[in-house]
Amino acid sequence: MTMSDPLGDMLTRIRNGQQANKTVIECPYSRLRESVCNVLKDEGFIRAFKSEDRENNKKVLIIELKYAEGQGAIRQIDRVSKPGRRVYSGVNDLPRFYNGLGILVVSTPQGVMADHKARAENIGGEILCQVF
User: Fold this and answer.
1) What is the CATH number of the domain that holds 99?
2) Contact, 60 vs 46, CB < 8 A?
3) Per-residue confidence in pLDDT tens, the chain, 132 aa
4) Which of 58, 6, 56, 12 is nearest to 35 (CA)?
5) Model-level pTM?
6) Is 129 helix (H, G, I), strand (E, B) or coil?
């Protein structure tokens, strides 16, 4: 069966993994998921990630979750733009999540990046998810 929202599935796996105090989670590989993981790693929300080949030519992403003082580094992670309702924003209309403490992951023509980097490069795009 095909998945209608692969990125939403990855975010849910991360959320559930942190609630269960897992150190490592796995999810199927895609370039978009890898790009979002790269932003989460650069912003300090996950410790590391890597892609690994499995049997039948399947790739998986192995994501190492980050904890500080027994709490997960990610307090809240939500999907914004969904398959049924895409959310686009220009650079001047990018909202601030938790008054700038959280980040928005934005898919731009220059690639997937955090909202503060998109503002610095003066480009907008599709708001994929919000993380705090």
Assistant:
1) 3.30.1490.10
2) no
3) 578 999 999 999 999 999 999 999 999 999 999 999 999 999 999 999 999 999 999 999 999 999 999 899 999 999 999 999 999 999 999 999 999 899 999 999 999 999 999 999 999 999 999 999
4) 6
5) 0.94
6) strand
